[in-house]
Write a structure and sequence with these properties.
With about 250 residues, this protein is α/β, with parallel strands linked by helices. It has a single domain, classed as Vaccinia Virus protein VP39 (Rossmann fold). The chain has nine helices and seven strands. Strands 3-2-1-4-5-7-6 form a seven-stranded mixed beta sheet, with helices on both faces. Helix 1 packs across helix 8 and helix 1 crosses helix 9. The relative contact order is 0.19. Bound molecules: S-adenosylmethionine (SAM). The site of S-adenosylmethionine has 23 residues, from helix 4.
Length: about 250
C-alpha cells in the first residue's frame, strides 16, 4: 500500500502545484513541476548524456507533474511520453503541458517492447520496493543500445538511518549491481551539479508559497512538509546524496 505521506507529496501536492501555476502563469510551470529536485544543469547533463534529439521518443517513468519531460521537449525537441501512477499527478501534467500521460506503475509499463528511443526515471527509484522489476521493464521498452538517464538518491551506507515514509535508498554499490543485473551498462555517473539560477528557483518558490498559503491547514500539506524536512536533514548530514546516471541498454 502506498503510504499516505507519499500520496500527499506526489498526488495532492501535484494538483495544488498545477492550480498555483495556473494562477501565477505559464513561465512558472517547468520549475514548479520538476519535483525530483532536477534543475536546468542536471537536466542538461542528462539530455546531453542521452544524446536527446528532435523527434526522438523519450519515456519519462514516474514523471510526476511533467516538468523534466516538458523541459526536454522545449529545449531538445523530443516527443515525450509520461508514465505516472498517481491519478492527480497525471491530470496535473496533462493540464500544464498537454503531453501524453499514461497512468501506470513503472513495474508494468503499458508500452510496446523496444518502442522508445530513450528513457528517464528521475527521483523515482528510491520510492520503489522492487527496483529490479522497474529497471527490467524500462529495459524491455527501450530500443537496442538506447540510453537511460537516472536521478537517484543514494545512501552513504546500508540503511543505518530512518528514511522518510515509503523511501528505500540504495547504496551506490547496490545501484551499480542493480543496473548490471537488469541489463544496463553504466556509462557515467556524477553528483548532481549544484545550483539552479535564481530566476528558476524563485519561480518554484513562488508556486510553493501559493500552495502553502492555500493549504497549510490541510493534513496532507503537513505530511508532505514532514517528508521534505526529513529529506533535507538527510542531505544536510551527508547520509544521502543525489546521483545522475547515464546507462545504456545492453543488447
Ligand atoms: C520525487 S517524484 C519525481 C517526479 C518527476 N520524475 C520529477 O523529477 O519531477 C517521484 C515520482 O515517482 C512516482 N512513483 C512512485 N512509485 C512509482 C512506481 N512504482 N512507478 C512509477 N512511478 C512511481 C511518484 O508518484 C512520483 O510522481
Amino acid at each position: 500500500m502506498t503510504p499516505s505521506a507519499m500520496i500527499a507529496e506526489f498526488d495532492d501536492g501535484a494538483g495544488w502545484t498545477a492550480d498555483a501555476v495556473e494562477q501565477l502563469g505559464e513561465r512558472h510551470a517547468i520549475p514548479a513541476a520538476c519535483r525530483g529536485s532536477a534543475d536546468p544543469a542536471a537536466l542538461a547533463w542528462l539530455a546531453e548524456a542521452c544524446e536527446l534529439s528532435p523527434g526522438s521518443r523519450l519515456l519519462d517513468v514516474g514523471a510526476g507533474v511533467g516538468g523534466p519531460a516538458a523541459w526536454a521537449a522545449k529545449r531538445f525537441g523530443v516527443r515525450p511520453v509520461l508514465v505516472e501512477p498517481m491519478p492527480v499527478a497525471c491530470r496535473a501534467a496533462a493540464r500544464l503541458f498537454g503531453l501524453p500521460v499514461v497512468r501506470a506503475s513503472g513495474e508494468r509499463l503499458p508500452i510496446r517492447a523496444e518502442s522508445v528511443d530513450a528513457a528517464w526515471c528521475l527521483g523515482v527509484l528510491c520510492t520503489v520496493v522492487d527496483k529490479a522489476a522497474l529497471l527490467r521493464e524500462i529495459h524491455r521498452v527501450l530500443g537496442p543500445n538506447a540510453p537511460l538517464g537516472l536521478l537517484v538518491v543514494v545512501a552513504r551506507s546500508p540503511r543505518s538511518f530512518p528514511a522518510p515514509d515509503g523511501n528505500l535508498f540504495p547504496t551506490q554499490r547496490e545501484l551499480e549491481e542493480l543496473l548490471a543485473t537488469t541489463g544496463f551498462d553504466l556509462i557515467e555517473q556524477i553528483d548532481r551539479p549544484g545550483g539552479a539560477p535564481l530566476s528558476w528557483s524563485r519561480r518554484a518558490e513562488q508556486v510553493a508559497a501559493v500552495v502553502a498559503r492555500r493549504h497549510r491547514d490541510d493534513r496532507a500539506f503537513a505530511l508532505a512538509a514532514r517528508q521534505s524536512e526529513s529529506f533535507a536533514r538527510l542531505f544536510a548530514s551527508g547520509q544521502v546524496s543525489m546521483r545522475l546516471i547515464h546507462a545504456v541498454k545492453r543488447p
